[in-house]
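User: Here's a chain of 234 residues. Predict its fold as C-alpha cells.
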Amino acid sequence: MSFLRSQEPFPAFKSGFLDITPLSFGVALYGAAFGLLAAQAGIDTLQTGVMGSTVFAGASQIVAAERLVSGAGATAALIAGLALNVRILLMTASLREEFAGRPLWQILLGVHMTTDENWALMHATRAQGRPAGYWYLVGGGASLFLVWITSTLLGVSFAAMLPEPRAIGMDFAFTAAFIAILCSLWRGKGDALPWLAAVASAGALTLFAPIEPSWALICGGIVGAATAGVFCNG
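Assistant: Prediction complete.
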C-alpha cells in the first residue's frame, strides 16, 4: 500500500489519462453507435448526456436502450442494464487497497470511474513493473468518460440529420456496438467456456422458457460467472 500511496496524484492521473488513449478509439466507436440508438429509443441529447454521466457503463446503457426500443418498458430496461453490469461490483471490490483510508468522495469517484478498460490497464501496467494506483485508475477513467460522453452526444446529434435509421441499415448498430465491446473484453481461449455457457443458457431460456429476455440475460450471466468460478480458477 505504501508503494501505491507514494505516487503524486497529478503525474499518476496524467499517466493514466494518456496511457489509455489507444483504447479510447474503440470506446468512441461504440459510443457513437449508442448515440444513434439512443435517438431511435426517443432519448434526446440532454437525456443521453445525463444518462452517460450518471451511469457511465456502455454495455448497460446499450442493452437498456435496446429494451426500450423493443417496447419492453423501463423496468425491464433497468433490470437488463443492472444485470449486465454486475461484474463491476467484483472489479471495485478488488480495489480495497486502492480505496483504503481515502475520503468518501474519492471512493465514490473511483467506483464511478472504474471500467473494464482502465481497471485492466492498471493491472497490466503494474505487471510491467510500473506504478499504477488510485489516481492512475481515475485518470484513465476520466479519459474514457470524456470520450464516451462526447461520442454519444455526437451520435445523437448525427441521428437527427438522418432519415429513418432502419432504411439505411443503422438498426444493425446495436449488434455492431456489442461486437466492439466483446472484442475489447476477450482475453483468450480461457474465456471460451464461460462465454459459451452464458450464451447457451441465455439463448435457451429466451427461446424455450416463458420468461422476459431480460431475466434470461441475468440467468445467462449467473451461469457464465459460475462456470468461470468452477472451471477457470487457474
